[in-house]
TrEMBL record:
This is UTP--glucose-1-phosphate uridylyltransferase. It comes from Pseudokineococcus lusitanus. One of its GO terms (molecular function) is UTP:glucose-1-phosphate uridylyltransferase activity. PANTHER family: UTP--GLUCOSE-1-PHOSPHATE URIDYLYLTRANSFERASE. Its EC number is 2.7.7.9.
């Protein structure tokens, strides 16, 4: 199946960033001067997926406004002759064909994916979680699309994490013999467990927020009972798919990601992402790197709470 569509679940309340997210969606938090959600949409487009469905909820109108035309703003910038800012404003509007559907009840990631069924139809599609930003120099999603088109079934992104942190993630078990026959960093997944206890984790390969899914996932999600937290877990549906025959859309492979990932759902990691990406920009990097060199000793020696 050729893949054209991406689904971005964006109905979460962003409570970890309160009060900043009291009146503004967490997906609109700026990473330097670009909303986090735009990085995710750009990643989908770079992988050839220009049909993007955002699964939203109450208080998410700003997402629609960001990717819509702002005629008054454009007219004002054009009148001032500010072509640089005008191009940036128009760029997000022309980036992709962005559609929206509301999730309604917050029943978990699996339910958010199921809400996309009518839009996706019987095609393979990608799911990108907005809290995970993948550096554009590391084409993870494009690799996953290629693996799915070649091997079929569904594909998940995996990342090695310290063993003591596996309880924070979904975790994969592997078919070692089948994996040996595949190329580097592509593995055959036999099972997935949502946030296992450290002693029960089958590996230290954690699922991160990128998926390329066979449409059979919709049939599985419709009969998947709520799991941890009383929510319909996508991990549980993938566990079922892993045990299904290939002719029915079953089978799960993993791509082990070793590139640059920024977790913007965590406050500390969000700050690190802003600093790192700003340091790498031509317009901000030189001055910011110099400022950090001049101030790092003072900042690192400051007592907590000062």
């Amino acid at each position: 199946m050729s893949i054209h569509k991406a689904v971005i679940p964006a109905a979460g309340q962003g409570t970890r960033f309160l009060p900043a997210t009291k009146a503004s969606p967490k997906e609109m938090l700026p990473v330097v001067d670009v909303p986090a959600i735009e990085y995710v949409v750009r990643e989908a487009v770079a992988a050839g997926l220009e049909d993007v469905l955002m699964v939203t909820g109450r208080g998410k109108r700003a997402l629609e406004d960001h990717f819509d035309r702002n005629v008054e703003l454009e007219a004002g910038l054009e009148a001032k002759g500010d072509d640089s800012k005008l191009a940036k404003v128009r760029d997000s509007t022309d980036l992709a064909q962005v559609h929206y559907v509301r999730q309604g009840d917050p029943k978990g990631l699996g339910h958010a994916v199921l809400v996309a069924k009518a839009h996706v139809g019987r095609e393979a599609f990608a799911v990108l979680l907005g809290d995970d930003l993948i550096d554009p120099r590391d084409p993870l999603l494009q690799t996953m699309v290629e693996v799915q088109e070649r091997l079929g079934g569904s594909v998940v992104a995996l990342m090695e994490v310290p063993r003591e942190q596996v309880y924070l993630y979904g975790c994969a078990s592997l078919d070692e013999a089948a994996t040996d026959a595949l190329e580097d960093d592509v593995v055959k997944v036999t099972g997935l467990v949502e946030k296992p206890a450290v002693e029960d984790a089958p590996s230290n390969l954690a699922i991160i927020g990128r998926y390329v899914l066979h449409p059979a996932v919709f049939d599985v999600l419709e009969r998947t009972e709520p799991g941890k937290g009383g929510e319909i877990q996508l991990t549980d549906a993938l566990q079922t798919l892993a045990g299904m025959p290939a002719e029915d859309g079953g089978g799960v492979h993993g791509v082990v990601f070793r590139g640059r990932r920024y977790d913007t759902g965590d406050k500390l990691d969000y700050i690190k992402a802003v600093v790192r990406l700003a340091c790498e920009r031509e317009d901000l990097g030189p001055d910011l790197r110099e400022w950090l060199r001049d101030n790092v000793d003072e900042l690192t020696s400051a007592p907590s709470g000062s």
